[in-house]
Design goal:
This protein is of the alpha/beta class. It has nine helices and 18 strands. The chain has two domains: about 170 residues, Medium-chain alcohol dehydrogenases, catalytic domain (Quinone Oxidoreductase, Chain A, domain 1, Alpha-Beta Complex); about 140 residues, NAD(P)-binding Rossmann-like Domain (Rossmann fold, 3-Layer(aba) Sandwich), CATH 3.40.50.720. The protein starts with a strand and ends with a strand. About 45% of the residues are buried.
């Protein structure tokens, strides 16, 4: 089979590998489409902890089950499925286990013609989604869903700020918010991305390159209840200008600065503000998210698709940072 493999020298190539054998509890999925995340860029640069190479990349994917293990119900054969993008969350809903890990390193990922995966890692694909849309959903949508619903505890009437609109998680959060009956605002350094977000349902947006963006946001939105945050600023105190009493900052990534500081802790605890880390989501979160998306026929936003033989160009596209939505590789 053809596979996109990162070798021990951190070189990314399309290679020929054997079709994987399946275990009794596994299914063999013929992958129809996969999608990129920034995680693959960090892996390619060697910036991910615990690197184990060579490895097939890719956490996001969807396809058709072509073979089943002895312990798998025969009804699954031939089913179109979406792949839960991780292993070993554990038995606690509030946190993942230490051994939790994302597909695509150290375990083989989705950027191949086939993947062997436990039956418990697949969910029937909603009919209304195309293959690229189904592949674009797992990691980013799951991260946004858990951040908003479980950690952010959004409720009807809340005001939500999504920072760095344009990325996969941010776009997924924007897609969820209207169906959660919340009011959403965005930040970006791109006026075009802000305009696109407003066209997609955001009430407004501000350019975070403006030194006083937080004041502008307060004038525009009033008090914010939940922040879906991929990159807090170097000083978090500016958030106090617009955070409501009891607000939750849900932090899921470090696309900008890897550190932030609070100069006046008392102002934070007197307002009962929570700063919460959130990574991916549990299988329960995944099933609930797909059911919610199917109920409201929510589609992930796709920036661009590439044929499998052009997969390296897809990585180049992602590295520009100009995308709005997900970059997808079509395997057929």
């Amino acid at each position: 089979m053809k596979a996109l493999q990162l070798n021990s020298d951190k070189e990314l190539n399309i290679v020929d590998l054997d079709i994987p054998e399946i275990q009794p509890d596994e299914v063999l999925v013929k992958v129809k489409a996969s999608a990129l995340n920034h995680r693959e860029l960090w892996l390619r640069k060697g910036l991910y902890p615990g690197m184990s190479l060579p490895c097939i990349l890719g956490a996001d994917g969807a396809g058709t089950i072509e073979k089943i293990g002895n312990d798998v119900n025969e009804i699954m054969l031939g089913k179109d499925v979406v792949i839960y993008p991780a292993y070993d969350w554990g038995d606690k809903q509030h946190t993942s286990a230490k051994q939790f890990r994302v597909l695509g390193m150290p375990d083989p990922g989705t950027m191949a013609e086939y993947i062997a995966i436990p039956e418990s890692n697949v969910v029937i694909k909603p009919d209304y989604l195309s293959w690229p849309e189904a592949a674009a959903m797992p990691l980013a949508s799951l991260t946004a869903w858990r951040a908003l619903k479980y950690n952010g505890k959004v409720k009807k009437g809340d005001k939500v700020l999504i920072t760095g609109i344009g990325g996969g998680v941010a776009q997924a959060g924007l897609a969820f918010c209207p169906h959660l009956d919340v009011e959403v605002y965005v930040t970006s350094s791109s006026p075009e991305k802000i305009a696109q977000a407003v066209a997609a349902g955001a009430k407004g947006g501000v350019n975070y390159k403006n030194p006083e963006w937080y004041k502008e946001l307060k004038e525009m939105a009033g008090k914010i209840d939940v922040v879906l945050d991929s990159s807090p600023p170097e000083e978090l105190d500016n958030y106090l200008a617009f955070l409501n009493m009891g607000a939750r900052i849900v932090y899921y990534g470090s696309t900008g600065s890897r550190s932030t500081q609070i100069k006046n802790m008392s102002r934070f605890f007197l307002k009962h503000i929570s700063f919460i880390g959130s990574t991916m989501g549990s299988p329960q979160d995944f099933f609930e998210m797909i059911a919610f998306m199917e109920q409201h026929e929510i589609k992930p936003q796709i920036h661009k698709t590439f044929a499998f033989e052009d997969a390296l160009l897809a990585f180049d596209e992602l590295s520009t940072g100009k995308q709005v939505g997900k970059i997808v590789i079509e395997h057929e």
